[in-house]
Amino acid sequence: MQELRIDHYPGFSEKEIARLAEDTARRFDCPDLLVIHRVGVIHPGEAIVLVAALSIHRASAFDAVRILMDYLKTDAPLWKKETGPNGARWIEPRPEDHARRLEAEKGWT
Question: What is the pTM of this model?
């Protein structure tokens, strides 16, 4: 891969990511979750996303971060295009990404 371009819909994407974070924070009893997701051109080895959780219990914080990362991969309104030596291609969540997220949700209900 030469680069990854992440596009978003300004205003909407941020609100939806904030909604996902608020829902996750509420479900895991985390007073706060921080999400920073880069957009634009990203080169190999560069960081893309940061998720941090504030919680009384570390297990809740770890679970919230893990599940929110799954939601960012499958549900966040971000569009990813990878460019490499064979040209460009759009990156979509894989079936296993959706399956992992659905498996994690079983503990929420």
Answer: 0.88
For residue range 9-34, list pLDDT tens digits in order: 999 999 999 999 999 999 999 999 99
Q: What is the pLDDT of residue 100?
A: 85
Burial pattern 31-56, b for ≥16 Cβ within 10 A else e, equals eebebebebeebeeeeeebebebebe
Q: And the tokens for 66?
A: 């893990």
69, 78 Cβ separation under 8 angstroms: no
Both tokens assigned to 24: 């996750």
Contact 77, 14 (CB under 8 A): no
With a cut of 80, say whether residue 104 has pLDDT above it: no
Report the C-alpha gap between 9 and 76 in whole angstroms: 11
Summary count for the chain: helices (H), strands (E): 3, 6
97 and 70 Cβ atoms separated by less than 8 Å: yes
Euclidean distance between CA atoms 6 and 39, whole angstroms: 5
